[in-house]
From TrEMBL:
UniProt GO cellular component terms: endoplasmic reticulum; membrane
PANTHER family: N-ACETYLGLUCOSAMINYL-PHOSPHATIDYLINOSITOL DE-N-ACETYLASE, N-ACETYLGLUCOSAMINYL-PHOSPHATIDYLINOSITOL DE-N-ACETYLASE-RELATED
E.C. numbers: 3.5.1.89
InterPro entries: GlcNAc_PI_deacetylase-related, LmbE-like_dom_sf
The organism's taxonomic lineage, starting at the top: Eukaryota, Metazoa, Chordata, Craniata, Vertebrata
The protein, known as: N-acetylglucosaminylphosphatidylinositol deacetylase
The family this protein is said to belong to: Belongs to the PIGL family.
Record-level GO BP terms: GPI anchor biosynthetic process
Pfam families: PIG-L
Enzyme class: hydrolase
Molecular-function GO terms, alphabetical: N-acetylglucosaminylphosphatidylinositol deacetylase activity
Gene3D superfamilies (UniProt xref): LmbE-like (3.40.50.10320)
Amino acid sequence: SGNYCNQGEIRKKELEQSCCVLGIPASDVTVIDHRDLPDHPAVEWDTELLATLILEHIEAKNINLVVTFDAGGVSGHANHVSVHTAVRYSVCTLLWVSPWGCRVLVLESVNLFRKYISFLDVLISCLLPRDALFILTEEQTEQAKRAMQCHRSQLLWFRRLYLLFSRYLVVNSLRLL
């Protein structure tokens, strides 16, 4: 639930506002508040528990595409890495991709230089192998920035730089899991 530093309720509201900006209905958002899945940048979550919760959401919402972090978690955040591990476990062990026709795309983590060269990374990304490449329009980039700005409690100085220079607000390269 994003309760790191006891900000869970604030962060839930920020998530709702962000999803609204992105056109995602509140009924499609599931906030997990589980004592064994604490929001903490250094805590790895239980793979089987998280995989079960993710699978329940996929089945309940009849989801046919999941976009998740890669093993680097984009920022190295342990919770992000745990999400990747749980999705990978689900695909490889629980085999939920085939029975329900759900595909999984994994967002590529890039080095620090590429992460902060904004639109210049489009050139690099076009030359490198990947299964999917999403290049956002200026309007989509502005919408993504507005959505991120809803997370006021998390807008520390380095995230403000992220809003200005991150390639992820312009280009995202993904691989099929």
